């Protein structure tokens, strides 16, 4: 009988301590979504989470009750074993032995392992064990309410603070929930647009202008003193809705022209010229967006550290960072190549982001503020633009230049040698 009670108490103690850690470790956003499912379990979860302090207090009370009963019966059991084996000690030694053995068993079976297990699988276990947890919550409800009232009284009178604080969602919890959802999507499945937008929004605050800009080498521009007919021909040739206007070179951009303004039949390009904003490469795109909205502009010229033109960013580029690619009939389908061609061997377009390659292929390429793409990483170390057929070695990264022009690298073969 005594052993059965001990086992039951250990199971209950494991349950109470586990539910306590599961409740505090579970993703709050996940729980809120589960509570909106409108079924029996969702109603139970709603009742459990409506007052977090009382639920935690109820679990602590249940844990303490189980441990007190366990200690009483475990002490008798240990003394019985000692008497059976003829181990006779003084009262102090008996108490010490009882305490050490009982503590070791309870820590091993009802504290350490359950808490680790419940913390790892917090989201799942809090759903599975919601019903028994609610029954114990109701059982100890009035006792926990009494102790919380005492705690709140002490906090308010002596420490001048409020006891029951509102639990808000954190950015980390939202990020963890989205990561979990993304990891469950198969490669051939499409990610829900809402999940993708949330993920983009979380990453939005860390994206810099240089990460999304149209690089200098891809900017189509026209000189300020060219004719309107030249401008019209360039609009027809490119299919763009905006053309950058420069004076002498791309390092002296004076504005842009929208194709709609050609309907005004301008006499010169300058008469329909719209101004642009100038921003550094390292500025965050959220700040670029605020600046463009405040100044009622549509285009920002991104400057490098020497004041030269590095690229351009438009409102559309920033919106696409949140909502995904917005394609129109004039967008060209440029497919960036990323292919694993063997063990530790890859074929990559140099326009691919270093951060993306590290996350996708676990390459551990060093990331710095001075570059963002794979091509930038190579040029940063070579201090020049390699040509087709060149072999570049940067630590364990061995690059073979597959395609390149005199202005940029296009395609490389990467071999990783440890």
TrEMBL record:
Keyword Transmembrane in record: yes
Coiled coil: none
A GO term for molecular function: flavin adenine dinucleotide binding
Origin superkingdom: Bacteria
InterPro entries in the cross-refs: CBS_dom, CBS_dom_sf, CNNM, FAD-bd_PCMH-like_sf, FAD-bd_PCMH_sub2, Ion_transp-like_CBS, Transptr-assoc_dom
Gene3D superfamilies, sorted: 3.30.465.10, CBS-domain
Start and end residues of each CBS domain: 269-329
Annotated keywords: CBS domain, Membrane, Repeat, Transmembrane, Transmembrane helix
Membrane topology, as annotated: Multi-pass membrane protein
Stretches that traverse the bilayer: 55-80, 92-113, 133-155
Localization terms from the record: Membrane
Record bears the keyword Repeat: yes
Primary site of residence: membrane
Name of the protein described by the UniProt record: Hemolysin, contains CBS domains
């Amino acid at each position: 009988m005594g052993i059965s009670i001990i086992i039951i108490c250990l199971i209950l103690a494991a349950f109470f301590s586990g539910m306590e850690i599961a409740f505090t470790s579970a993703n709050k956003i996940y729980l809120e979504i589960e509570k909106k499912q409108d079924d029996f379990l969702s109603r139970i979860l709603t009742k459990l989470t409506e007052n977090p302090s009382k639920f935690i207090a109820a679990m602590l009370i249940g844990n303490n009750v189980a441990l007190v009963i366990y200690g009483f019966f475990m002490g008798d059991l240990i003394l019985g074993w000692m008497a059976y084996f003829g181990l006779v000690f003084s009262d102090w030694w008996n108490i010490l032995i009882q305490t050490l053995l009982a503590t070791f068993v309870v820590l091993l079976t009802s504290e350490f392992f359950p808490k680790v297990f419940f913390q790892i699988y917090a989201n799942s276990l809090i759903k599975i064990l919601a019903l028994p947890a609610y029954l114990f919550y109701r059982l100890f409800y009035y006792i926990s309410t009494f102790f919380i009232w005492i705690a709140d009284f002490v906090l308010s009178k002596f420490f001048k603070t409020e006891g029951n604080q509102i639990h808000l969602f954190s950015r980390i919890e939202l990020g963890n929930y989205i990561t979990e959802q993304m990891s469950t999507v198969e490669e051939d499945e499409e990610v829900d647009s809402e999940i993708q937008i949330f993920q983009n929004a979380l990453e939005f605050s860390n994206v810099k202008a240089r990460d999304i800009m149209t690089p200098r080498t891809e900017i189509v521009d026209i000189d300020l003193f060219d004719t309107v007919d030249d401008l019209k021909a360039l609009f027809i040739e490119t299919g763009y809705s905006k053309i950058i206007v420069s004076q002498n070179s791309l390092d002296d951009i004076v504005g842009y022209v929208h194709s709609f303004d050609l309907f005004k039949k301008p006499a010169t390009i300058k008469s329909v010229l719209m101004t642009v904003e100038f921003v550094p490469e390292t500025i965050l795109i959220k700040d670029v967006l605020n600046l463009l909205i405040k100044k009622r502009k549509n285009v920002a010229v991104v400057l490098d550290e020497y004041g030269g033109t590095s690229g351009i960013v438009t409102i559309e580029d920033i919106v696409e960072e949140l909502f995904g690619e917005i394609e129109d009939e004039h967008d060209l389908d440029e497919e960036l190549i990323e292919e694993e061609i063997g063990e530790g061997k890859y074929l990559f377009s140099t326009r691919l982001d270093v951060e993306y390659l590290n996350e996708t292929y676990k390459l551990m390429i060093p990331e710095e503020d001075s570059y963002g793409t794979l091509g930038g990483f190579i040029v940063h170390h070579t201090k020049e633009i390699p040509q087709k057929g060149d072999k570049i070695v940067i630590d364990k990264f061995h690059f073979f230049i597959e395609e390149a022009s005199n202005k940029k690298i296009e395609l490389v073969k990467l071999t990783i040698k440890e």
